[in-house]
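Thread title: Can someone regenerate the structure for this chain?

I was given the following input by a collaborator and told the matching structure tokens would be attached. They weren't. Posting the sequence so someone can regenerate them.
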Amino acid sequence: MAFFTLSLLNGLSYGLLLFMLSSGLTLIWGMMGVLNFAHASFYMLGAYLAYSVTGWLGFWPALLLAPLGVGLAGAAFERLGLRRVRRFGHMSELLITFGLSYILVEVVQLVWGRSSVDYRVPPALDGPLFTLFDTQFPLYRAFMMVVTLAVLAALALLVRTRIGLVVRAALTHPDMVQALGYNVPRVFTWVFGAGCALAGLAGVLGGNAFVTEPGMAQALGGVVFVVVVVGGLGSLKGAFAASLLIGLLQTFVVALDVPLLPSLKLSQLAPVLPYAVMVLTLILRPNGLMGSAQRHGGY
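Best answer:
Regenerated them for you:
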């Protein structure tokens, strides 16, 4: 019972972190039609900014300032770079965001170095939430879960408000929205910035729970795209379901660690598991768990 309960909670906390990261990518695709290859790099940037701000002002200001900084950086990139190439199609969008991902890694290495940094859980949240059969569940993981669920609720409300309606209308009928007095390019800039800010918030929460180092973007980047594809491109509900599914599967596979062959353990298959799930999903449901056959998924 202790093994199942703690593995379930750890899987949920990891899955919710994946959702926090993938929700920004889903938001950008669903409302703009841009598949941002640099999204995981914004996650890394959020963790490093949080590390620096925590050293100056503490963790709680970093929880607000680091995502804001990442969001502004994302908005600036959309305004100065992405907007100029969007008219050339998706291939140009992919190439410029792919190049940005490498630039951000190099910038991080120049500023903070090539090794990991000592970004720690704040003292107020450093301890167990409860102890079950001599095994402790960290308070910080519970905090991560609460913040992620709050973001999920806020996104669910936002897409149903007037702002969400304007953004979605700007995607499908930009000329009509422009005629109604809305600045469509500015709307897209703020949407892209908001998606990057969500990635930055995931970096603030995940950077001290795991490891903050230059390879963290590469480590999670592929898994995030798997989550978005399995859930259905553009579907927040699908991203939420896929995040929990992959988080729980990977956690239980690592926790079980049973031998399959004399030289192979089940835990060694954990890195491959998300991609196997993606392949199986694409075979059985090409549009994802909750995606649609349209150009962009629904909410």
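The chain has a mean pLDDT of 87.
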